[in-house]
Batch of 2 targets.
Target 1
Amino acid sequence: MEVLGVKMQFFTRYGSDDKVHTTVWLPEREILLTTMLWSSPPQLYSVRGDVFRDPREWIEGLKHNRDLQPEVLISAAARPIVGKELIQITLEGYLDGASYVLDQSLRGILGGKGPNELRHLVTFPAYLNETPNNLQNYGEISSYAPAIHYQCVGWYDNDAANLKPVAPWDEADRIVPLMGGRDAVLAAAAEAMEKKEYAWAAQLVNYLYRLDPEDPEVRQAKADALRQMAYVSTGANDRAHLMSQALALEGKVTIPRVIPPAPEVIAAAPATYLDYFRVRIDPEKSGETDKVLRFDFADGSSAGLHVRRAVAEFVTAPDEHYREPDMTLAMSGETWAKIYLSQATPADLIASGDIEVTGDAAEAARVIDLFDRYVQEEAVVVPPAATSPQR
């Protein structure tokens, strides 16, 4: 199409880190506008958590960019490049970096390597490191290969000993005595720090942290190790996680594990958030409960929860459910938001008239109380330290 007299061609087939990528090509001027090229390797996995980013999509998109043979490349995620030859060299080095991570990960999988082994085996050869756009200043490729392994063949590394591992806290409880106890582990971690073996120091002290995350000496030892790891990390994402958790261990920052939606968002779609609410059922509290709750919201929508012991089934259409509701709760979206965010108890909202219950009101309140409450102070990555030393 023509935009202000300039011919433009739009390509939407290939994605990068998003699912709505668009490459724009100006054929008469040989100018390419893209977000396929970054100032760091294609981020095939985000440590903050994201859906799988298929390397094949990014690779094919880069091939498409290269084959257009642009004279000028303008990227939203890197410096612009001028000159057909330089662009071709840059794109091929970048394309080969992404292809290397994918193919060597697959090669390792065929060789029986597990995700943690791939983390250490898939590293750039020197010539790929020399491509400026392959500088690992945002993400680090050590975290990409495990994600590819999980997507291709799952978490199992083909070592049968890892099929039934003991729980992490159980492992720590067993291994710390074998290492000579708390003080011996701390001494070993300090020795590792002296040798600049920061990752090993963090791994050692983590056994103690699992046993007592409020131990001030353990927290500081872990913070020291994470801080040094941050100092030598090239990737901004890795460095941010390491440094932030070091500060949190020292009580200087708080890192939320969960950031709930705003009340207005919940109130605008109460049935949707009733569905999300189901995963908060506490199986230890629910016991033998078998109750159907119908929710009639002020916006005209209705939905339900069928609590069957340890499971809460979301009922999209209560009128079509095989069981009649035991209780019906009528409320506004704003009232449901208060329950969802644990800003008020069901009993209080029933007593105030914000919730009108048909059926046993006390039983309705009890069933809703079977679900986890959101407590902001507890929804953190690193729990706060005790006010006084425990040791």
Target 2
Amino acid sequence: MISPRFLISHGAVVSHTPAVLAGACLLVLAACGGGGGSSGGNSTGTLNLALTDAPSCGYDAVNVTVEKVRVHKSGSATDTNSGWSEVVLAQPTRLNLLTLTNGVLEELGQTALPTGKYTQLRLVLSPNDSAHPLANSVTPTGGSETALTTPSGQQSGVKTNIDIDIAADKVADFVLDFRVCESIVKRGNSGQYNLKPVITVLPRLSDAGMRIVGYVDTSLTPATTTVSAQVDGVPVRSTPPDSTGRFVLYPVPAGSYDLVVNAQGHVTAVVTGVPVVTTAYTYVNTTASRIDPPTATARTVSGTVSTGVDPIDATVSALKLYNGGPTIELGTVPVNALDGTYSFSLPAEAPLRAAYAAESTPLVFTADPTSPTGQYTLKATYSGTVKTQVVDISTGPVAATPFSFP
């Protein structure tokens, strides 16, 4: 919505449909009226947005060209309904989403909106055309840049459900987490990819805290390592570490989390009970006590999902379930849009587990006896319906039973 290169000189126009506000105003961390109208004594508040990204899962670049962002109070509003408020970039801006990881945010700006609850957001992308054939593109690791197919994002915008309250004379500050790993969908063996954006909206209440900071060993490759803050097996924020092993998860709402370090070819490491507050950073360790999980026996789980609909729009997650302990997610992937295939490479060994302690106290990891070695739960999701099955990779790779949705 938003660009790592979005500077004051770029500017943006804020308008409301169906008519553009006369004498359009520049969005330079302040904006003029939003959709639905704010005249006649109606109270208004301010919506402030920023963008960040989660790990990239095998891509060197994911580029999108953004035209505008739209918000509406109705989750069922169509593209032609009145009441939309828009943040329109002065000119379409191409950006690489993978620059927005490890705590980096790109500020989108602000717009004034009538008070009330907003439930729909749409990200409108420029189309790939003859003049700009790679306006939206992906570069797989070891591959060449390829155009992304974005059928829904080019016209009415990519729809995301939101739950944002705009209060009178207050600023509602939110971050849009663009989950690239779940948003890029392979199309069979054609070498082509679809873009189906998965975006999570997170509140940003304070710049003084809402961060988890720590260090993994520098031998863990950033491109194949993910650090995530999870609640009951649902990642709230995820990031790769940087080249020094440092990771920053931000923003993370105040609460208690399981910190999961998932590095390809290594045993999963989990730090339980990590507290997050709004007034200070949470440090889980120092450079003298980096998280360094041992190498693991990597085994493959593969399978298929069928839905009877083309393209196949489903995801599969790999979960580790504990008896009396936390559930953790080791990854979620979209299935191949043409043949429904998916695969994971998972450690056969049980995860290591440590309880959170003060930063100066080294974390003590031990094998978790409540986690059955080699057992994982696969969760397939299609159109709001979920199906699960347990697989066991203790003795070798596994071909999972096909998931079938009517």
